[in-house]
Design a protein that fits this description.
- The chain starts with 7 loop residues before the first helix and ends with a helix.
- Helices cover 67% and strands 0% of the residues.
- It has 2 domains: 102 residues, RNA polymerase sigma factor, region 2, helix turn helix motif (Rna Polymerase Sigma Factor, Chain: A), CATH 1.10.1740; 142 residues, Arc Repressor Mutant, subunit A (Orthogonal Bundle), CATH 1.10.10.10.
- The protein is built from 13 helices and no strands.
- Helix 2 packs across helix 13 and helix 3 packs across helix 4.
């Protein structure tokens, strides 16, 4: 996902409090902010709450943007700082080892073996959901600082200098965090995940056999799963993830709060 280009004139109007410009800025920011929040926090409800807070921080602190960096860098910094300290409704345990996830996958494979049957069309949809949930689960096994470094690189394509500026660390520190995150996920997926290593024991289709039968509309699921299969490494799998759609209530809540300060939307 790329951060949208914000025209200087639009940004200036938003800084002056023009409602239409503020709304246009919200519409441009909501997708990258929500996608970042969801990948870092892991739960949609937490991501919605965090996105609303981040969007409000950005739009109500526009006067503090001095223009000594790209606007996207400034906005990412606000989002990253908020997400590093964001509270979640379910207690987060970032030190859960990847071994614990491996145990869950092994349990699913045992259930699949016990429920052995031919694959059904609905299993394709289940496999796509499993692929997204499982890879997100891998991210959640990283500590937040490593997770954020990884997501800024993989999902948003920030170079090391920009990402370091966002996180307010030295580039060497950022690269070290990113390298450690990559190594952990690469090693795990090479050992366990058939999306990366066809010889690995665990596949999304096998895990789907451990679940009850799902719905039958599988066309989108087949295309999404195909995009994730037989990729070179963990990074390629995460880059192939589809973007998440932003719930409408995120921007509606932010609009309602801002409306109290602007007196309405044009």
């Amino acid at each position: 996902m790329k951060f949208p280009a914000i025209e200087p004139e639009q940004l200036q109007r938003a800084r002056q409090g023009e409602p239409a410009a503020l709304d246009a800025l919200l519409l441009a920011l909501q997708a990258p902010v929500y996608n970042l929040a969801l990948r870092i926090l892991g739960r949609r409800e937490d991501a919605q709450d965090a996105s609303q807070e981040i969007l409000l921080r950005i739009t109500t602190h526009l006067a503090s943007f001095r223009g000594d960096s790209q606007f996207s860098t400034w906005a990412f910094r606000i989002a990253s700082n908020a997400l590093l300290t964001a509270r979640t409704k379910v207690r987060e345990t970032p030190t859960v080892p990847l071994d614990a996830l491996a145990d869950k996958l092994d349990h699913g494979l045992r259930l699949a073996q016990a429920n052995e049957r031919p694959l059904e069309p609905a299993d394709k949809l289940a496999a796509e959901r499993i692929a997204l949930a499982c890879t997100q689960g891998m991210l959640m096994c990283l500590e937040r600082e490593q997770r954020l470094a990884y997501v800024l690189d993989i999902a948003f394509g920030l170079d090391s200098e920009t990402a370091a500026t966002v996180l307010e660390v030295e580039p060497a520190t950022y690269r070290k965090r990113l390298s450690r995150a990559r190594q952990r996920l690469d090693d795990f997926m090479q050992q366990h995940c058939a999306l990366v290593n066809p010889q690995a024991p665990c596949s999304c289709e096998r895990q789907a056999l451990a679940l009850p039968a799902g719905v039958n509309d599988t066309r989108k699921a087949e295309s999404e799963l195909l995009a994730l299969t037989r990729l070179a490494d963990a990074a390629a799998v995460f880059r192939a993830h589809p973007d998440y759609q932003v719930p409408q209530r995120v921007i509606e809540t932010v609009r309602a709060v801002l409306q109290q300060h602007t007196g309405g939307w044009q």
